[in-house]
Amino acid sequence: MAAMTTRRTRARAAALTAAATVIATAALLGCSDSTTDSDATPTTPSVQITGPEGTATVPASENPIPQEELWDPCSLPQEVKDSIQLDARTRNDDSLPPSRICSYGSGLGGTAKDPSYGVNVLVSPYSFDEMKSNDKYTNIRPATVGDGHAAFLADTKGTGAGTNKSGVNIVWGTSFGSVAVSVFPETAVPVDLDSLLDTFVSSAYPYIPT
């Protein structure tokens, strides 16, 4: 009799355990079924303009950043200007959308025998590849800025005051497009443009958004 009672108790316990397992499984299934893909809140992806390296890869025509939201190239601190003896005054030119340009002049050139040069800093939604294909650049060669950020050096030639006005440029890609820095002579007095460009960019790069 005692043995029969023990068997009934064990059977009842097993049944209760099985029932509890079924209830728990049903509860888990209920949780998983309550959230479906159709119930998820839809998200609208933001416009992706950068590639794996963090620089803009879309052409300027597809870049949604307006001119007024680009970094101000005239905002470089005085210590950057002082690095190559530039005048404190600057000239901001936003008349060539979608880019922004700032012109810096040297504090030298008081006489015809003094070297005088200028610097233009251009901030643009044009991608690095678009800038490289710009036909105003000649003798394009690879370079780096900052901590090894890819860039290219290039020469330019133009006409200023009736004489050839050559310059040297460096261009690199950014998350908003690209930055180009140009150094050019303003008199016929020889000046080491490569050295000026290197010194200016080394000083300016930490202040320019990437």
Number of domains: 2
CATH class division of the largest domain: Alpha Beta
Q: Write out the strand line-up for the largest beta sheet, numbering strands in chain order.
A: 1-2-3-7-6-5-4
CATH architecture of the largest domain: 3-Layer(aba) Sandwich
CATH topology of the largest domain: Protein Transport Mog1p, Chain A
Radius of gyration equals: 33 Å
What is the H/E order? HHEEEHEEEEH
Q: Largest beta sheet, briefly?
A: 7 strands, antiparallel
Helix coverage percent: 25-40%
Overview of this structure, please?
The chain has 210 residues and is of the alpha+beta class. The chain has two domains: 2-35; 60-207, 3-Layer(aba) Sandwich (Protein Transport Mog1p, Chain A), CATH 3.40.1000. 26% of the residues lie in helices and 30% in strands. It has helices spanning 2-34, 78-82, 128-132, 193-204; strands at residues 86-93, 100-106, 117-124, 138-145, 149-160, 163-173, 178-185. A seven-stranded antiparallel β-sheet has the order 1-2-3-7-6-5-4. It is globular and about 45 Å long. The termini are far apart. The relative contact order is 0.14.
Question: What tags apply to this protein structure?
Answer:
210 residues, alpha+beta, Protein Transport Mog1p, Chain A, 2 domains, seven-stranded antiparallel β-sheet, 4 helices, 7 strands, globular, disordered N terminus
